[in-house]
């Protein structure tokens, strides 16, 4: 069996874990939710829920990972001493592989738009049209390229692959966001976007749907439930203070989401000022893939030559955000295959990369039937239920004295800390109820 890797520095872990959490959803989902749901009032609710719901589950994953020094399947088997734990781990790694399969398709589109901005600069019009078309060949090519990029980083292992690239990619991502925020702020219409984003409408936070969507955003934005944080936690030094480390990850994730809003919402109002439609027929701000692949490219086209360079920077940002998440997703099944099946890391990475590409190709070739279905099954159903299972395993099954012993490894006074006085019972009683409520509410079973 291969020797397990370990993060060589605290900043390396924080940037890798925050990179896992900072994905495409932070950049295209969070900003429009904020602007459509009370501006700064929504941000306050989101930050609150990130710490009362997402942070406790994040800590559960990190503590399981570091205590067991194992992949998700073996870790849950160890703390539960049962096949049910192992089965939950298998469910997690199948779910994360399915998420990566559809995620790679969207990330592939980001790469093609990135190249398209370059072809516009040098005047290759035919290539530009093909790169932004919706052909199967384009989707297959760039999806495969993205998976290959992801695999080439994960092959390097924890410190030489994941950590080394996270330490480069995350600061680059933040720098590009800041530069684009500064540029967009100088354009006509940006001030209206800033008002929509930062002026609070406290009446909106009484809406039940807003609270549910804020809960969902807080939970899913930290990529919880599918084992990414558990596996990253298994590579953390025993000397680290885990509650403080987890708080750092949560703060960086929240910070990047808020920065993304400072870019996306003013950019949308600049687009409106330039004659681009930014509201749907229902009056809601356009979000998701329509925002990224329709509204913003239309904005870039109204900027003349400078628009090509802005597009180049923006889609570079999107590719980096996708890559920092995908490397953590691929590491979940890779860790299992390397540790439990004894396969060499290089073989495991490329084998699993190939399997995920086959899954992605199947979705692309049956796009209308499978794309939305796979997203729904994984993110709306499987992920919250896995989060619920993790809360139950740590809150009800794993022995409390073993949990405390693990936390004390990095902080001998942990038993007397505010974290230890609140977190165990909170994870045991409050988190499962909130997650279950959120799940049932998302199914529209409860009409309130």
Automatic annotation (TrEMBL):
Name of the protein in question: Sodium-dependent transporter
NCBIfam families: Na_transp
A Pfam family it matches: SNF
Domain of life: Bacteria
GO cellular component: membrane
Record PROSITE patterns: NA_NEUROTRAN_SYMP_3
Keyword presence, Membrane: yes
Organism: Paraglaciecola mesophila
Annotated membrane topology: Multi-pass membrane protein
UniProt-annotated location(s): Membrane
InterPro entries tied to this protein: Na/ntran_symport, SNS_sf, YocR/YhdH-like
Keywords linked to the UniProt accession: Membrane, Transmembrane, Transmembrane helix, Transport
Membrane-traversing stretches: 12-31, 43-64, 90-115, 135-158, 170-190, 210-232, 244-272, 305-327, 348-367, 373-398, 418-440
Coiled-coil positions: none
């Amino acid at each position: 069996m291969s020797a397990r890797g370990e993060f060589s520095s605290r900043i390396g872990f924080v940037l890798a874990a925050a990179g896992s959490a900072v994905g495409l959803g932070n950049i295209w989902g969070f900003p429009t939710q904020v602007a459509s749901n009370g501006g700064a009032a929504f941000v306050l609710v989101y930050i609150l829920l990130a710490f009362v719901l997402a942070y406790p589950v994040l800590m559960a994953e990190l503590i399981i990972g570091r205590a067991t020094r194992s992949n998700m399947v073996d870790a849950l088997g160890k703390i539960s001493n049962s096949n049910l734990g192992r089965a939950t781990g298998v469910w997690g790694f199948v779910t994360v592989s399915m998420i990566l399969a559809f995620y790679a398709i969207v990330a592939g589109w980001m790469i093609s738009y990135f190249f398209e901005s370059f072809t516009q600069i040098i005047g290759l019009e035919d290539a530009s049209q093909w790169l932004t078309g919706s052909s199967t060949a384009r989707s297959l090519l760039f999806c495969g390229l993205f998976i290959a990029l992801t695999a080439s980083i994960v092959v390097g292992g924890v410190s030489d692959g994941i950590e080394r690239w996270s330490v480069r990619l995350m600061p680059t991502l933040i720098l590009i966001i800041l530069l684009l925020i500064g540029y967009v702020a100088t354009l006509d219409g940006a001030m209206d976007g800033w008002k929509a984003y930062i002026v609070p409408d406290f009446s909106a936070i009484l809406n039940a749907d807003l609270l549910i969507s804020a809960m969902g955003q807080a939970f899913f934005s930290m990529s919880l439930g599918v084992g990414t944080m558990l596996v990253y936690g298994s590579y953390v030094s025993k000397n680290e203070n885990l509650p403080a480390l987890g708080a750092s990850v949560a703060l960086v994730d929240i910070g990047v989401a808020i920065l993304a809003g400072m870019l996306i919402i003013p950019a949308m109002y600049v687009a409106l000022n330039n004659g681009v439609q930014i509201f749907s027929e229902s009056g809601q701000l356009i979000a998701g893939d329509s925002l990224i692949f329709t509204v913003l490219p239309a904005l870039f086209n109204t900027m003349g030559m400078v628009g090509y360079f802005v597009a180049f920077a923006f889609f570079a940002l999107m590719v980096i955000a996708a890559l920092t998440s995908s490397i953590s997703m691929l590491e979940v099944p890779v860790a299992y295959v390397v540790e439990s099946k004894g396969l060499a890391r290089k073989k495991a990475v490329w084998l699993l990369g190939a399997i995920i590409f086959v899954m992605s190709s199947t979705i692309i070739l049956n796009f209308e039937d499978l794309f939305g279905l796979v997203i729904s099954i994984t993110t709306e159903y499987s992920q919250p239920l896995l989060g619920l299972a993790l809360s139950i395993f740590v809150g009800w099954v794993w022995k409390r004295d073993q949990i405390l012993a693990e936390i004390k490894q990095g902080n001998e006074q942990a038993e007397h800390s505010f974290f230890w006085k609140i977190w165990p019972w909170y994870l045991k009683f409050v988190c499962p109820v909130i997650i279950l409520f959120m799940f049932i509410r998302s199914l529209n079973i409860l009409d309130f």
